[in-house]
Amino acid sequence: xxxxxxxxxxxxxxxxxxxxxxxxxxxxxxxxxxxxxxxxxxxxxxxxxxxxxxxxxxxxxxxxxxxxxxxxxxxxxxxxxxxxxxxxxxxxxxxxxxxxxxxxxxxxxxxxxxxxxxxxxxxxxxxxxxxxxxxxxxxxxxxxxxxxxxxxxxxxxxxxxxxxxxxxxxxxxxxxxxxxxxxxxxxxxxxxxxxxxxxxxxxxxxxxxxxxxxxxxxxxxxxxxxxxxxxxxxxxxxxxxxxxxxxxxxxxxxxxxxxxxxxxxxxxxxxxxxxxxxxxxxxxxxxxxxxxxxxxxxxxxxxxxxxxxxxxxxxxxxxxxxxxxxxxxxxxxxxxxxxxxxxxxxxxxxxxxxxxxxxxxxxxxxxxxxxxxxxxxxxxxxx
Length: 383
Prior knowledge:
Structural class: alpha+beta
CATH class of the largest domain: Mainly Alpha
CATH architecture of the largest domain: Up-down Bundle
CATH superfamily of the largest domain: Butyryl-CoA Dehydrogenase, subunit A, domain 3
Low-confidence stretches: none
Shape: globular
Mean pLDDT: 95
CATH topology of the largest domain: Butyryl-CoA Dehydrogenase, subunit A, domain 3
């Protein structure tokens, strides 16, 4: 019902078949487990294997068992997964955009052949190490170091708030070399040195996905595992892919909330009539559906531009900021329609709302994207 503008009319038969399969997978496999996973903060490694069996990891990659699909398709897959839970979508998008994508774009054949096939099947789980305890939005101030030592690099440092890290087998880590330039490296748990990935405890959001740290102590990384990209453009190119997936993904969460609120308002009796009979309820639903359609149209437009290789990165900031903002507002509005029931896990809206508070912040905070857009408009940097 949210899709009043028929925004998916231009999808191909192949895309529709794929998305129908993903939707069925989400409903049949992910939905039955999500309430307990979130409540108990548990993550089953088999989720990665099941996603791998679906063939959806790294969907824009043309080889190594991947789909070779469009960025629009990638976004719509993210939307279907996030309609169940943002945590599950985080697991999918980190594996796809932040691990497989940089290995495919910037890795040599040795690294690609070693890691991509098993990442595609979900046998390997990957994570992306950029954020540090004292280096969040200002990633250029990172202190992790990569020192050349013959045919190897020695990595030391610490990363935090890293999705997938407690379960990860493969790590795309960013560190500064002797010249203070940022380089990317592909690590795995079999390397000499010490890699520890403690779980971050006490999360009140994204509880159905694993989040932790990466601590590196004299990890010996072969020189061929260095990515062929230097400076902040390396991690930022990865983040832009992930941000596009988020712009679509959060709309899956918002769509679920709208459908749940609509269903509830048509069933709930209040003062002798259905809650949906009330003008204020219809007005709220109408505004939310308009916001959802406008956000989805914007995301589809930017995805098309990315597929055409005719885009400015600021476009991704526009839709990431807008989609997250609107999705969060929609979830809050839907929770309000359900009254006290809105905070019950039975109705699921509060879980989506808590998740969206985090998605609003990660992969570039709302304010950071506002400043990126402001920089584009004025030509002046405010950060």
